[in-house]
């Protein structure tokens, strides 16, 4: 049997080339298209808010027109558990618990769509009846009974929102915070999860997460 003597340098070179060919592919970075998609989703949130509350950054700051737009956007970025809606076109109920600080600002939301669900708005003067809502807003005027309201809604699949100071830290889900005529929001993610509500990652990116 003939034995071929291959120079060591040639063997080493072949081994290196083989290793290069067999090297596992490096993990690719997110594509430019993907990054643009993420950015556009965030931009869409802010544009919708600006269009619904048209005085956000122009003219007189209309606080509750802006907050009404936020309520609509929050509903768009929440996933409720199965069975919450009894039919595909059942309305999304946005309820105001107690005193209504919005005036006519909420009327612009009526009939708008959240997926296949039209938006309806209802004022609820007492603690009863809130269990039929999907979003409940508790105004600053209701601060004295906010804890009672939250206790009555605990673990129900209802998104609770308020502009009461430290609302999210006190057990609410989303707290609106005004600073320099702009509104940001805090989210208590643990409370939302306890209610079996899934908040979009796009919404979470815009929020301050609190406990």
TrEMBL record:
InterPro entries: YfiR/HmsC-like. Residues 1-30 are annotated as: Disordered. It comes from the Bacteria. This is Transmembrane protein. It comes from Candidatus Competibacter denitrificans Run_A_D11. The lineage of its organism: Bacteria, Pseudomonadati, Pseudomonadota, Gammaproteobacteria, Candidatus Competibacteraceae.
């Amino acid at each position: 049997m003939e034995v071929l003597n291959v120079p060591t340098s040639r063997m080493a070179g072949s081994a290196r080339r083989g290793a290069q060919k067999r090297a596992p592919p490096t993990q690719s970075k997110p594509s430019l298209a993907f990054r643009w998609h993420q950015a556009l989703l965030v931009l869409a949130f802010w544009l919708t808010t600006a269009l619904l509350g048209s005085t956000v950054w122009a003219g007189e700051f209309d606080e509750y027109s802006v907050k009404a737009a936020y309520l609509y956007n929050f509903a768009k970025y929440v996933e409720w558990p199965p069975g919450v809606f009894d039919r595909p076109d059942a309305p999304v109920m946005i309820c105001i618990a107690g005193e209504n600080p919005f005036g006519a600002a909420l009327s612009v939301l009526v009939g708008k769509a959240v997926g296949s669900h039209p938006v309806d708005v209802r004022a609820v003067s007492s603690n009863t009846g809130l269990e039929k809502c999907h979003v409940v807003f508790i105004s600053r005027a209701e601060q004295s009974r906010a804890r009672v309201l939250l206790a009555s809604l605990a673990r129900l699949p209802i998104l609770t929102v308020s502009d009461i100071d430290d609302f999210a830290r006190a057990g609410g889900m989303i707290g609106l915070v005004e600073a320099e005529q702009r509104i940001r929001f805090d989210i208590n993610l643990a409370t939302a999860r306890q209610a079996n509500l899934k908040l979009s990652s796009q919404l979470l990116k815009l929020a301050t997460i609190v406990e």
